[in-house]
Amino acid sequence: MNTSLQLYNTLTRKKEPFEPLHAPNVGMYVCGPTVYSDVHLGNCRTFISFDLIFRYLKYSGFKVRYVRNITDAGHLEGDRDEGDDKFAKRAKLEQLEPMEVVQKYTLGFHDVLRVFNTLPPSIEPTATGHIMEQIEMIKEIINNGYAYEVNGTIYFDVEKYSKEYNYTILTNRNLEDMLANTRELGGQDDKRGRLDFALWIMAKPETIMRWPSPWGVGFPGWHIECSAMSAKYLGDEFDIHGGGMDLAATHHTNEIAQSEAYSHKQPAKYWMHTNMLTVNGSRMSKSLGNGFLPGELFTGDHSMLKKGFSPMTVKFFMLQAHYRSTLDFSNEALDASEKGFRRLMNAVNLLGRLIPSDTSDFEIQSLADNCLKAMNDDFNSPVVIAELFEAVRIINTVHDGKAKISAEELVKLKKLINDFVFDIFGLKDEDSANTELNSVLDLVIDIRKSAKENKDYATSDKIRVGLHEMGILLKDSKEGTTWNKI
Ligand code: AMP
Ligand code: ZN
Q: Number of structural domains, the chain?
């Protein structure tokens, strides 16, 4: 089990050694998507970042229970418990029953994450599947004196809570400033304090998604589902809670408040937040209209795109930035990632064909140590990628016959690539998926060899030039012929 991992904790605003509450078991909860529309590329960045973290924790010997929820109810358009229900609105627009909307976009979300080769979470609970648990939690929060009812709606009492706890612990904001920046309550407001938020909302006659409760028919507020589901599957105290940075100020702040008001315990030891994917410096978001769908990126069918980029190119582009840095989308950056990823995959394909020597010009252990050190330093994937390009250089030099590698070092090199490229980064060779191409090329190379042996240079040249025109470069050496994509 890895005891050298350090991770950045939003709660303490510093890097800390990762010491799980019940090692080797690790509980990790990540806020999942709100499935009233397609996920955009920004959402994917957050889930790909947590996939990296999940994969590395598993690689490090931890037994991880990874819970990532599906928000399929209780999400109003405004952050302040106002506006239409997003699901009902979309259902009306698409002439569907709200749960058809949920099913459609949940399936779409799974398809997209599969294309990005992310691992499924251990448990994927839904808000609508846990209404009972949410009601029970709200009852307990009321019993503990931190919530009150007004006309069938239950509000969390932030003022009462903040007398005993630090409401702004995650973001370190000043409560007075927050109050000053929040709209004053008007005559039609039912809540007592400006910062109070709804745990349960009374249904209006037109509300479609509604459930009975001790306070009448209604639906849960936006934040309570995550407190209820994390407690149910990971306990009142667990290791990691994560999500995108935009969730820290409201959703996660309110989650901590609810969980503490319920169990008097800070729910997660480590809070982790991933940074945003931006376009020209602005956060990619559905509401700004600058969010494109992964499918549009793959086909290039979007006005902002020069061409399409493959899923692994996009994933590689994301891994080239640290998860806590912003990442700005641009065609140029993706072009560069495409080239880099192809170079990496070409080298990986050559790896199986390297012939070991008795001596070695390289010592792979230090490369592997550097990769581990980088991952142990708060999952620093860009540094790992720089080290992997050093491995690419070694592979190419040995392949070109300019340096030697021993059998022992070659085994280490293969392990390094296998561990970091495939296991931890979850990349895959999109071309090798096309095993038919490999077999056809083996056959063509064999025919060319026979043609050359028979001095039929017209045929052998035709094959070489023809393949070159298709973007495939043949390379002859003492050991035989290999091919590369240009
Ligand atoms: P939502 O479906 O809006 O609830 O968002 C799902 C996840 O995507 C949340 O963890 C958000 O913080 C995250 N997210 C939203 N926009 C972006 C973005 N532009 N870049 C990275 N993550 C994002
Ligand atoms: Zn959540």
A: 3
Ligand 1 atom nearest 283 alpha carbon: 19
C-alpha pair distances (Å), 472 with each of 328, 483, 484: 32, 7, 6
Q: How far is ligand 2, taken at its centre, from the CA of residue 224, in Å?
A: 8
Q: Is any atom of ligand 1 closer than 6 Å to the C-beta of 45? A: yes
Report the alpha-carbon distance of residue 172 to residue 321 in Å, rounded: 26
Residues 227 and 236 sit within 8 Å (Cβ to Cβ): no
Look at residue 430 and tell me if it is in a domain: no
DSSP letter, residue 86: H
What's the token pair of residue 76?
Answer: 């109003």
pLDDT in tens, 342-383: 999 999 999 988 999 999 999 999 999 999 999 999 999 999
Closest ligand 1 atom number to CA of residue 71: 4
The enclosing domain of 346 has a CATH number of: 1.10.730
* Residue range(s) defining the domain that contains residue 479: 435-485
What DSSP string describes 433-445? T-HHHHHHHHHHH
Last residue of a domain, one of 379, 398, 424: 424
Taking the CA of residue 35 as reference, the ligand 1 atom at the shortest distance is 2
Which residues face 238 on adjacent strands? 268
Task: Say yes or no: 24 and 122 in one domain.
Answer: yes
